[in-house]
Amino acid sequence: MSETNLELFADHSTFVAFDTETTGLEAPPHRLVEIAGVKFSLGGKKIETFKSLVNPGREIPPDAIEVHGITDKMVAKARTVDKVLDKFAKFCGNSILIAHNAPFDISFLASESDRVGIPRLKNKVLDTVDIFKKLQPRIPAYSLLSLARYYRIAQSQKHRALDDAKLVQKLFTLAVTELSGDKSLPQLLKSFAKFSISGWKLK
Q1: Beta strand pairing status for 96-99 and 14-22?
Q2: Residue 12 a catalytic site member
Q3: 25 to each of 107, 124, 141, how far by Cα in Å?
Q4: Is the dihedral of CA 132, 31, 115, 201 positive or negative?
Q5: Which domains can be identified in the chain, with CATH numbers?
Q6: What's the whole-model pTM score?
Q7: C-alpha dihedral over 128, 196, 36, 171, to 10 degrees?
Q8: From the candidates 12, 68, 100, 159, which is the catalytic residue?
Q9: Residue 161 contacts residue 34 (beta carbons within 8 Å)
Q10: Looking at CB atoms within 10 Å, which of 30, 68, 100, 114 has the fewest?
Q11: Backbone angles phi, psi at 153, to 5 degrees
């Protein structure tokens, strides 16, 4: 493992577990309507949070509203995506990002950044689906709710960005502190897939 990666995954590293809510399942053409993050470090007690609705500049389809409950009225006075992503980038800083089914969230961050002409985030991203498949290959299902129920973290899912980001943070912490055996954090994370928002190729 290179010195750079050792520094990236050092035990004092700061992480941001994040989640998005959208107008649909594919980016593009769909857009963000909410993004949230939980900033933390392993072993640290301080947790910071970020959450913001996003005005997508278009109507939110009924099937999307049925999932997350975010309506056109709720986002009417929300900031536009360029302003929200700028604030989110400042919140994240150089933190390692974590998402559940990360390619979905990454595709929206990349697509929305390109659409409004702002730089994509350069942070590396880990995927808790990948993490649990590697550490716990015999679990029946790997959805966020399935894992939360399996480990008795939560019995329901609100499908709102901050609530889901908190579940991601708890699952990641559980994975690397209790399910990792005797491996150090650098050793453990070396085997996890690391995604890139800046280099993500959209369809």
Answers
A1: parallel
A2: no
A3: 10, 22, 20
A4: positive
A5: 3-196 (3.30.420.10)
A6: 0.92
A7: 10
A8: 159
A9: yes
A10: 114
A11: -85, -40
Distances in Å between the Cα of 170 and the Cα atoms of 42, 101, 148, 178 are: 11, 15, 9, 11
Give the angle 119-168-150 at the CA atoms, nearest 5°. Answer: 155
d(CA 144, CA 150): 10
Helix (H, G, I), strand (E, B) or coil at 119: coil
Token look-up 């800046």 returns: 198
Per-residue confidence of the chain (203 residues) as pLDDT tens digits?
Answer: 233 444 445 555 899 999 999 999 999 999 999 999 999 998 778 899 999 999 999 999 999 999 999 999 999 999 999 999 999 999 999 999 999 999 999 999 999 999 999 999 999 999 999 999 999 999 999 999 999 999 999 998 889 999 999 999 999 999 988 888 878 777 888 889 999 999 999 97
